[in-house]
Amino acid sequence: MSASPIRRWARSEAASGWFMVSPTLIYAMLLLAAPLATIFAYSFFKDGYLVVIHEFTTQNYIDAWSDPIFRTILFRSVLVSALVTLVTVLLAFPIAYFISFVVPASNKSRWLFLITIPFWTSYLIRVFQWKVILNFNGVINSTLQGLGIIDSPLQMLNSIGAIAITLAHAYAPFAILPIFVSLEKIDRSLLEAGQDLGESKLMTFWRVTLPLAMPGVIGAVMIVFIPTIGDYVTPELIGGGKLPMVANMIQKDMLKIDNKPLGAAVAVSAMFVVAAVSLLFLFLNRRFLKVGK
């Protein structure tokens, strides 16, 4: 008697693969997909007095996008995240290049170990450290005044620059590591072949090294841009709440105003904006690779 289709499938390699990934898949569904689906559903509900009315409406999105404050905060969030991403990647690439091409193979693990040291402390503690450094009576102002360079302390907190510096420092290791991995995968003989054909070191870098390292650069951009646009702690502590970003607005709508459907609509809108900006970057990167060939 032949085995049933279910038993044959249970013994197949496909079933073994599904059984192996099922714990991770269930974990992702419960902790990632389910909350996103809940937020998406809430964005189409109505807000009532101390309750959420489960009736379909698109008014939350209309209210969000017609609010000039939301548009301003969303634009600021994208601007700050783009600035942080640009600064972080521009600083991370030389460091990753130095570790990959200059540091001896026996010492690379030590350098990577040093890069991970900031992860030993809490993200919140690192933000507070930057608040101490940039404070009115902080390390920088005290040093500059002690050297006689300035007469009165500089106002560095509560600014976009301070927020960008703090976020760039926090996410720098996330940018260095993927770029380093891409640089390590480059066949060094390709670089030697380019120089043997008469290309300068600069052109070899531009036409060989950089295109081959772009997967790591793309990964670094995505890893930095996506979480920074939704960062809540840094604008609140370093910006003093005077320069809120979209996460701060979501928190206000959800908790202080107690309008969860509107907060959900703001969150979903921000997610679509992040997706649109990410797709635009991927498109521009493909164009860059075509031009570089």
Automatic annotation (TrEMBL):
<dbReference type="GO" id="GO:0055085">
    <property type="term" value="P:transmembrane transport"/>
</dbReference>
<dbReference type="Pfam" id="PF00528">
    <property type="entry name" value="BPD_transp_1"/>
</dbReference>
<keyword id="KW-1133">Transmembrane helix</keyword>
<keyword id="KW-1003">Cell membrane</keyword>
<feature type="transmembrane region" description="Helical">
    <location>
        <begin position="160"/>
        <end position="183"/>
    </location>
</feature>
<dbReference type="InterPro" id="IPR035906">
    <property type="entry name" value="MetI-like_sf"/>
</dbReference>
<comment type="similarity">
    <text>Belongs to the binding-protein-dependent transport system permease family. CysTW subfamily.</text>
</comment>
<protein>
    <submittedName>
        <fullName>ABC-type spermidine/putrescine transport system permease subunit I</fullName>
    </submittedName>
</protein>
<feature type="transmembrane region" description="Helical">
    <location>
        <begin position="21"/>
        <end position="45"/>
    </location>
</feature>
<feature type="domain" description="ABC transmembrane type-1">
    <location>
        <begin position="74"/>
        <end position="283"/>
    </location>
</feature>
<feature type="transmembrane region" description="Helical">
    <location>
        <begin position="262"/>
        <end position="284"/>
    </location>
</feature>
<dbReference type="GO" id="GO:0005886">
    <property type="term" value="C:plasma membrane"/>
</dbReference>
<feature type="transmembrane region" description="Helical">
    <location>
        <begin position="204"/>
        <end position="226"/>
    </location>
</feature>
<dbReference type="InterPro" id="IPR000515">
    <property type="entry name" value="MetI-like"/>
</dbReference>
<keyword id="KW-0472">Membrane</keyword>
<feature type="transmembrane region" description="Helical">
    <location>
        <begin position="111"/>
        <end position="128"/>
    </location>
</feature>
<keyword id="KW-0812">Transmembrane</keyword>
<keyword id="KW-0813">Transport</keyword>
<feature type="transmembrane region" description="Helical">
    <location>
        <begin position="73"/>
        <end position="99"/>
    </location>
</feature>
